[in-house]
Design a protein that fits this description.
Number of strands: 0
Oligomer: single chain
Strand content: under 5%
Order of helices and strands: HHHHH
Length: 144
């Protein structure tokens, strides 16, 4: 929290930990681009999953607050999803009958999730996210 009691900041200099060191800024920029590259690759290849890369990468490599990392991941995923969706639609991989139904649930779930993000402590958020990733990995490796 800042001196005004607000969480986070919009000051881009916060991302560089208050330093004007060019090499620190360059590392931050290259790490950010690298995170974007891997996130886009995963999202394009699998149709989802970019957030599972972006969130921990921002937290661990860029020292971004948990809440800000989750919210930023959503903003990152939107343009990646639009690009990926274009190619999936163009190649006729989309089942529109399912798509419209899932969109309705997704909009509702997204709204509820965004509201919960505001009240969920970072430590709990981290555990829920980790449990979800572990569960998904187990299902993919040993599920039917």
């Amino acid at each position: 929290m800042d001196e005004n009691g607000k969480q986070g900041s919009n000051n881009h200099q916060d991302n560089y930990k208050g330093t004007n060191d060019v090499s620190t800024r360059e590392k931050h920029i290259f790490r950010s681009i690298g995170i974007g590259l891997v996130t886009g690759l995963i999202n394009g290849l699998f149709g989802s999953g970019g957030g599972t890369i972006a969130v921990p990468a921002m937290v661990l490599l860029l020292d971004v607050d948990e809440h800000k990392a989750h919210a930023t991941a959503i903003s990152i995923i939107l343009p990646l999803t639009i690009i990926s969706a274009f190619f999936y639609i163009k190649n006729k991989y989309v089942d529109w009958n399912i798509t419209w139904k899932v969109i309705l649930g997704g909009i509702t779930g997204g709204y509820i999730g965004a509201k919960l993000l505001n009240i969920c402590p970072a430590s709990i958020l981290r555990r829920i996210f980790a449990a979800f990733m572990i569960f998904a990995a187990i299902r993919m490796l040993w599920g039917s």
